[in-house]
Amino acid sequence: MSFTIVLKFSRDWCIEPFFEIFNLVEFNRKDCNLVIINNTTFNKITAGLMMYISSHCNKFKSVKFYQSNSFVHDRYTGDNFYKVPIPFHTWTAYYSFQLQKLINKLVEDDIHIQLEDDTLIHLDTIPKLLKLMERENCVCATSPVPHRQKGFDIVGHNAYDKLTFDDKGFLLARSNYPVYRSGIRECDATGYCNLAFRKKPFEEAIKYLENLAFRIIGSGSDIYFTNHMKKNGLKILCDFSIWGEHLFVEDNVIKKNTLENCKPWDWKWNKDRSHYDLKFIEVKA
After folding, report:
1. Where along the chain do its domains lie?
2. Which residues of the chain have pLDDT under 70?
3. In whole angstroms, how far apart are CA 3 and each of 27, 95, 111, 200, 254?
4. Euclidean distance between CA atoms 250 and 118, whole angstroms
5. Helix, strand or coil, per DSSP, at residue 43
6. Does domain 3-280 bear CATH number 3.10.50.30?
7. Mean pLDDT score of the chain, rounded to an integer?
């Protein structure tokens, strides 16, 4: 069965560790159409990607490179919040969704897998995501990863088990599955990292999100995007046997987050302060 893997890059320092792991993952490359996207204006990222993948091109059914020339915004500066088109709250979220629209145009297979540059995947991630997609009514499958930000002693692992919306569809609260979960679990929504999609529900979710009448605040488009599939009676599954790891840079040295200190977490919308309150949850052995 033909399928597509989409590799999304916006950081040059992630290229080497990402491909060190990706090249070790065992899956049928002859059935795989590989799409590699440099989601920035930086040509050196494209050059780096071509260098790392050039010796492996003949292993895949096809390989395509694409440079989106999207502008990279600092997540925490005022410019990231200035005159952003509805329904998005930040330019970061806006461009993240534009990337999903681009992927929809580039992918022809019924099933595609999205991987991000700052996440090292478990070696069984690709075959297990494809296996999950064989299940009845499964239109999205994901693997857990810890939160990417240094200093956050929480789990942000792509699997949301409880979501609360108001009558207009605005997200009021969410919670993650706790870190000690195991097996395969159904989710209400996921992030945009380490996951597989089926083409028709993916296209329908794009149309849904473009027509939201309110501004998404405190969250990217991913939760609304994937939860739309769930609301249509379709399954989103997470396999807790294939944990990935996020990368971050400290003092110009690449370090990996670890799971030992992760905790479950959730947050709720605070109407008075117009922001989300994080709530940390201690887990007793």
Report:
1. 3-280
2. 76, 147-157, 219, 250-265, 279-285
3. 11, 25, 5, 14, 31
4. 14
5. helix
6. no
7. 86
> In the structure encoding, which two tokens stand for residue 274, read together?
């117009």
DSSP 82: S
pTM greater than the 0.85 cutoff = yes
Which pLDDT score is estimated for 43? 92
Q: How far apart are CA 234 and CA 195, in angstroms?
A: 15
Contact 196, 133 (CB under 8 A): yes
Tokens of 199: 């083409």
Residue at 87: amino acid letter: P
Strand arrangement of the beta sheet that strand 235-239 belongs to: 62-67, 32-38, 3-9, 111-116, 195-198, 138-142, 235-239, 184-186
What is the C-alpha separation between 153 and 132, in angstroms, rounded? 29
Q: Show the beta-strand stretches assigned E in the chain.
A: 3-9, 32-38, 62-67, 111-116, 119-120, 138-142, 160-165, 171-176, 184-186, 195-198, 235-239, 245-250, 253-256, 265-270, 275-280
C-alpha 29: how far from chain center: 22
Rounded Cα distance between 154 and 148, Å, is: 10
Task: Give the amino acid at 22.
Answer: F
Cα dihedral: 85, 88, 90, 93 (round 10): -120
Residue 121, CB half-sphere, CA atoms under 13 Å: how many? 27
**For the CA atoms of 135, 137, 140, 144, what is the dihedral angle to 10 degrees?**
-50
The C-alpha atoms of residue 112 and residue 214 are separated, in whole angstroms, by 29
